[in-house]
Amino acid sequence: MFRLERGVTGFRSGKGPELPEVPVRTFRGGCYEAARAAGGAVEHIVESAYPRSYHSAVIVASNGRLTVLCNAMYPWIAFAGEGTGHLEPKAFVDPPAWSAAFADLGFAVMSRQVLESPLAAVDTIALAKAEWLQIDSWQPATVGETVFNSWD
Questions:
Q1: Quick check: 132 pLDDT over 80?
Q2: What is the Cα–Cα distance from 10 to 20, expressed in whole angstroms?
C-alpha cells in the first residue's frame, strides 16, 4: 500500500518539525538526465513557490511534450500531459520509458494508478493534523491532487 508521508502536502503544525526538502537543483539534474534518456530537451523548469507544493518542468522529446512534477518535500515524480508546467486537475499520465532516469537518481516515479487513487486507498497515518485540516478544506479527490497541490 502506498504511504503518504508527513509534510507531503507542504503543510505542518507550527510546532512540528521542519519539513524535508527536495532542492530544485536536485530536480533540475534529474530533468536533464531524463531529457538525455528521452533524446529530448528540457524546455523550462519552475521552482516550487508558495502556494505550490511541487517543482515542475516541461521535457520535449520526439514523441511530444510532458510536464514533470516533483513534490518539493519528497523526491516523488509524476507526469502530466503536454502542458506549460502547471498542473491541471486530473491530467496525470503513465510514466514514459525514460522516467527510469529519475529512478536511477533516487526519485520515486509515481504511477498514474497511484496518482488517481482516492485517499482512502492509501496509508495516510503519517499525515499531520495541519495537513488534515487542509485536506478537509480543499477536498482533494485523489492522491495526486493531495501530493501536487496549490493550496493556500
A1: yes
A2: 10
pTM here is 0.93
What's the CA gap between 109 and 130, in Å, rounded? 26
Which helix (H) or strand (E) covers residue 119, if one does?
Answer: none
What span, in angstroms and rounded, lies between the C-alpha atoms of 80 and 46?
A: 15
Contact 135, 151 (CB under 8 A): no
Q: Distance (Å, rounded) from C-alpha 5 to C-alpha 131?
A: 11
> Do 146 and 114 touch, CB atoms closer than 8 A?
no
> Across the chain, how many H-helices and E-strands are there?
5, 6
Kindly report the CA angle at 74 between 95 and 81, in degrees rounded to 5? 30
Q: Quick one: pLDDT band at residue 74, thresholds 50, 70, 90?
A: very high
Rounded to whole angstroms, how far apart are CA atoms 104 and 49?
Answer: 26
Q: What is the DSSP secondary structure assignment for residue 123, as one 8-state letter? A: B
**Rounded to an integer, what distance in angstroms lies between the CA atom of residue 103 and that of residue 116?**
20
